[in-house]
Amino acid sequence: MEHVHLAVEEDDLYSGYNDYNPTFDSEELENDVGFQQAVRTSHGRRPPMTAKFPGTPIGPRSLASSFGARLHMASSMGRPMTGAVQDGSARPMTAVKAAGYTSSLSRGSAFDPLGQSRGPAPALEAKNEDTPEEKIKILEKKVNDLIEESCMAQSMGALQVALEKAKEAGRKERALVRQREQSGSADHINLDLTYSVLLNLANQYTNNEMYPEALNSYQIIVKNKMFSNAGRLKVNMANIYFKQKNYPKAIKFYRMALDQITNAHKEMRIKIMQNIGVVFICMGQYTDAITSFEHIMSESPNIKTGFNLILCYYAIGDRERMKKAFQKLISVPLGIDDEDKYIPSNEDTSSNMVIEAIKNDKLHQMERDLKTLAEKYIMTAAKLIAPAIETLFATGFDWFVTAVFFFASKDFNAVETLKAFEKKDSRVKSAAATNLSFLYFLEKDYDQADRYADLAMNADRYNPAALINKGNTVFVKQDYEKAAEFYKEALRNDSSCTEGLYNLGLTYQRLNRLEEALDCFLKLHAILRNSSQVMYQLASLYELLENPEQAIEWLMQVISVTPTDAQALAKLGELHDGEGDKSQAFQYYYESFRYFPSNIHVIEWLGAYYIETQFCEKAIQYFERATLIQPTQVKWQLMVASCYRRSGNSQKALETYKEIHRKFPENVECLRFLVRLCTDMQLKEAQDYATKLKKVEKMKEIREQRIKSGREGSARSRREGRESSAGSADSGRSSSSTKGERLSAKMRSLPGSNEPYEASSPKELDASYVDPLGPQMDRPKTGVKKRVEDDDFADEELGDDLLPE
């Protein structure tokens, strides 16, 4: 068997298919110690070494070729090896040469793509500081640095250091100028730098109270014509003279500075004039100071100037001008926001956060400081002038409170100021409580007004003003009997209390005790001979007592005192019209219209008068004015169109009716006149307007049927309504004719719906044209206490002695 040889099997075609080099097994890389070490260290980033063949040194394998040349193989597979040296030079690792790689490196060179092996970059060439330009730049920088250091030292309080720095900056700047002159660039001298050096040096001299040196530095600047706006520095020189108490020189330099400042710098001019006024005060020239301060208060008022003006008037003892100056002082606008702005709302969260952020910021703190300063000036001025403007302090205090109320803005809390006086003695406490009651009453806070009136009465039961305020609080509650008792008590304590007598007359008038009211006002007229309010109340009482002759007589006295009182003139016209004197009534109505052309009652009477006297053209202007006052009232526009029609201007009347129809398309009267006018003028539009008229009348009828239960009921209701309206108009006319006080309702107007177009005779004004204003308005105040009509009591009629006479 040893010599038996088996046949060789054929090779397996698929043998070695699953065999692979373990080098390419990526799943086992985590367990490969060499690979992991190469990843963690720089070992893996080094250029790979040349493959080593057994029995040969490390290096590329030399193979022979048919050309006789020896090729270097990078590996046993014949692939060129990365980093291998070929022909004495290393193969470049990338084609991007700008990355720092090159193929010209010698064999065995270290991998240095950033060229770090070449060492640090050479040092920059040092500037040549010997050139004139560089020396000038260095000197300029040193000068600027010294000026900055001087200012910083001053801000920290080191005044001596600041002065030394300023002097050194001056020396450096002079050296800089010499350097420029030597270099031939004298034309390029930095004037701004020179100005800064001199100004800073002058300021530091002033801060160190070295006034002669400071004035010398300022003089150098002012006399140099190359410095623009240097004249303003005369204000600084004037300030130095003021500190030296050289007031004439200070005035001179302030005025020189004022002459060199244009009107465009208004705020600076105001400040200089304020300084001039202060210097005049120091010199004792109060008249000249007043001139400056008055000009400032007329141009740009401020708290300090107003206070200084009061001091000047106090110094010369001018009581009346003290009062006026105080009124100007408390009316100065502070320009700050209302405190309500900082009250958070309950709804908007984001707004509340913003309010919380700004309520204590620096701006709000500045506003509070300004408000506190203003209140301090006002309180100081009040305490100063209160004893001076009147013989008694309490009387002066009363005037002060009145002025505060009538002229102070909401920036000044008058109520809080008055409460500060409650801690004084009983008399002053009573006056303060009385005035607080007065203020609360005007604010319609009747509970607080009643409370402080009681406090004033408890402090001083014999204070007539407190009793009058108490009576007023009872009056608004319509307890007229009790109010009359308080007014009577005030008169028992002070028989010359005109306010108590006036209010007592008003109370009797409310109680319909007209004779007693007349007696009160007659007594009051004996005291106040030229009071237009008292005379008007007498006229009103005589009118109620059906004595128009006496009423007219008293109204004539009112006109003699106040000839421009439009309401009194209108009342006179009404009374004369009631007496049947149309011409005299027209005169007074016309005068009333001239002074107050917006009283619709007067306008209506004048228009009716001109229509009645057949001067329709003149009536047009009054009804057109009424149209402007009440543009939604169609009756005035219809009256204008009627006046055009009556005057024979059919074309203008047609245009006016068309305009009325455009604004009030459902007005039946307008459509009827359009139909008639178009028919008479033979216009094609007549048929269109007739169709519209039928539609409007039908719509109106349907609307009435829906509102009313039936046609008969609605017709009866309309008929009764017209009869009642006509009856009320007739009764009103008869009442006015019997009393002699009402305006006659007669006027020539446009024809009604059932009036033929040809009718041109005078007609009664339709009863549906009612005065939309209702009762007459009160006559405007011409004095302290406002007149009250028959059925009106105004809150402003506080009859106490707080109101200025």
From TrEMBL:
Keywords: Cell projection, Cilium, Cilium biogenesis/degradation, Cytoplasm, Cytoskeleton, Flagellum, Repeat, TPR repeat. One of its GO terms (molecular function) is kinesin binding. Residues 724-737 have a biased composition (Low complexity). The keyword Cytoplasm applies. InterPro entries: TPR-like_helical_dom_sf (IPR011990), TPR_rpt (IPR019734). It comes from the Eukaryota. GO terms for biological process: inner ear receptor cell stereocilium organization; intraciliary transport; kidney development; non-motile cilium assembly; regulation of cilium assembly. This is Intraflagellar transport protein 88 homolog. The gene is IFT88.
